[in-house]
Design brief:
2 strands; mainly alpha; rod-shaped; 2 domains; 6% strand; disordered N terminus
C-alpha cells in the first residue's frame, strides 16, 4: 500500500502600521512518514510579504482572498485523502484482527501443542525396568555359568585325584596279589618239607628199631658169658633204652622245634595273608566307592554341562529378544524425534508469520499516529 500527499499553499497577509516597517514572514512545515514500505509527505508553506503603500495593500488583499480559497480546496482534498486513509486504516485494522483470530485458531488447531507423552514415558519406564531385570537375570545366569564352570573344574580335579588314587590302589592290589601268590608257593614248599621230614623221621625210627632188634638177637644167640675182675658192666638193654630215650627225646625236640618253626611260619604267613586279604578287601571297597564317586561326578559333570548349555541358549535368546525390543524402541524414538522436529519447524514458521503480521501492525499504527499528528497540526494551523 502506498499513499502520498503533497500540498502547498501560501497566504499573504499585509499588515500596515504607521510609523514602522513590516518585515516579510514565511513559514514552512513538512512531515515524512512511512508504513509498510509506503511513504507519505505533507508539506505546508506560508509566505507573506507586506510592503508599504496603499496600492500594494489592496493587491495583497486580493491575493489573500485567492490564497484562502486555495487553502480551503487543499484542506478539502487533504480531508478527503485523510478520510480514505482512515477508512483504509480501519480496513487494515479489521484485517489485522481477522488475521489475529485466524492465527489464534490456527495455533489452537495446528500450532505447537504440548503432547501427552505419558503413555510413551510409561512404556519407556516399563521397558527400562524389563531391561534392568533382564540385565540382572543375565548377570545371575553368567554367575551361575561361572559357578557351574568352577564346580565342573572342581569335579574334574576330584575326578583326576580319585582316578590317580584308584590307579594307585589297583597297583597295590596287584602287588598284594603277587605277594599272596609267593606266600602260597612258600607255604606249599614248607608243607612239602614237613612231609619229607616226617617220612625221614619215620624211616629213622624204623632203622633204629631194626638195629636194636639185630643187636638183641646177636646177644641172645652168642651164649657167651665173660667174667672179668672188672666191675660188672651195665645192662645193654638199659643202655639201648637210654639211647632210645635220648633219640626219642632228640627226635621229639627236633619235631617240636620243627613244628614250632613251621607253625610260626604258617601263622606269620596266615597273618600276612589275612592282613593282606583285609587290605585287599578294604582296597576293593575303596575302589568300589571311588568308582561310584567317579560315576556320580561324571553324572554331575554332564548335568552341569547341560545346565551350562541351557543357560547359554537362554542368554542368547534373551539378548536377541532385547536387541529386537531395543531396535523397536529406537524406531519409536526416531519417529517421536521426527514429529518433534516437525512441530518445532511448524512453530518457528508460525512465529515468523506472527512476527511479520506484528511488524505490519506496528507500521500501520505508526502511520495512524503520523496522520493523527498531521490532523492535529492542521487544526492548530486553522
Amino acid at each position: 500500500m502506498s499513499f502520498s500527499t503533497q500540498s502547498s499553499f501560501s497566504s499573504y497577509r499585509s499588515v500596515q502600521s504607521p510609523g514602522h516597517r513590516v518585515r516579510p514572514v514565511s513559514s514552512a512545515a513538512s512531515v515524512y512518514a512511512g508504513a509498510g514500505g509506503s511513504g507519505s509527505r505533507i508539506s505546508v508553506s506560508r509566505s507573506s510579504s507586506v510592503r508599504g503603500g496603499s496600492g500594494a495593500g489592496m493587491a495583497g488583499g486580493l491575493v489573500g482572498v485567492g490564497g484562502i480559497q486555495g487553502e480551503k480546496e487543499t484542506m478539502q482534498d487533504l480531508n478527503d485523502r485523510l478520510a480514505s486513509y482512515l477508512e483504509r486504516v480501519r480496513s487494515l485494522e479489521a484485517d489485522n484482527r481477522r488475521l489475529e483470530i485466524k492465527i489464534r485458531e490456527h495455533l489452537e488447531k495446528k500450532g505447537p501443542q504440548v503432547r501427552d507423552w505419558s503413555h510413551y514415558l510409561k512404556t519407556i519406564e516399563e521397558l527400562r525396568a524389563q531391561i534392568f531385570a533382564s540385565s540382572v537375570d543375565n548377570a545371575r545366569i553368567v554367575l551361575q555359568i561361572d559357578n557351574a564352570r568352577l564346580a565342573a573344574d572342581d569335579f574334574r580335579v576330584k575326578y583326576e585325584t580319585e582316578l590317580a588314587m584308584r590307579q594307585s590302589v589297583e597297583s597295590d592290589i596287584h602287588g598284594l596279589r603277587k605277594v599272596i601268590d609267593d606266600t602260597n608257593v612258600t607255604r606249599l614248599q614248607l608243607e612239602t618239607e614237613i612231609e619229607a621230614l616226617k617220612e625221614e623221621l619215620l624211616f629213622m625210627k624204623k632203622n633204629h628199631e631194626e638195629e636194636v632188634k639185630g643187636l638183641q638177637n646177636q646177644i641172645a644167640n652168642s651164649g657167651l658169658t665173660v667174667e672179668l675182675d672188672a666191675p660188672k658192666p651195665q645192662d645193654l638193654s638199659k643202655i639201648m633204652a637210654d639211647i632210645r630215650a635220648q633219640y626219642d627225646e632228640l627226635a621229639q625236640k627236633n619235631r617240636e622245634e620243627l613244628d614250632k618253626y613251621w607253625s610260626q611260619q604258617i601263622e606269620e604267613s596266615t597273618s600276612v595273608v589275612t592282613s593282606q586279604s583285609a587290605e585287599i578287601g578294604a582296597a576293593e571297597m575303596t575302589l568300589t566307592e571311588l568308582r561310584r564317586t567317579v560315576q556320580s561326578l561324571e553324572i554331575d559333570l554332564d548335568s552341569m554341562r547341560n545346565l551350562k548349555a541351557t543357560l547359554e541358549n537362554s542368554l542368547r535368546e534373551v539378548e536377541a529378544r532385547y536387541a529386537l525390543q531395543m531396535e523397536q524402541l529406537n524406531g519409536v524414538l526416531l519417529h517421536l524425534e521426527s514429529e518433534l522436529a516437525q512441530t518445532r519447524a511448524e512453530g518457528q514458521r508460525q512465529t515468523q508469520e506472527y512476527e511479520a503480521l506484528l511488524n505490519i501492525k506496528v507500521k500501520l499504527e505508526a502511520e495512524i499516529n503520523t496522520y493523527r499528528r498531521l490532523l492535529e497540526d492542521g487544526e492548530d494551523f486553522k
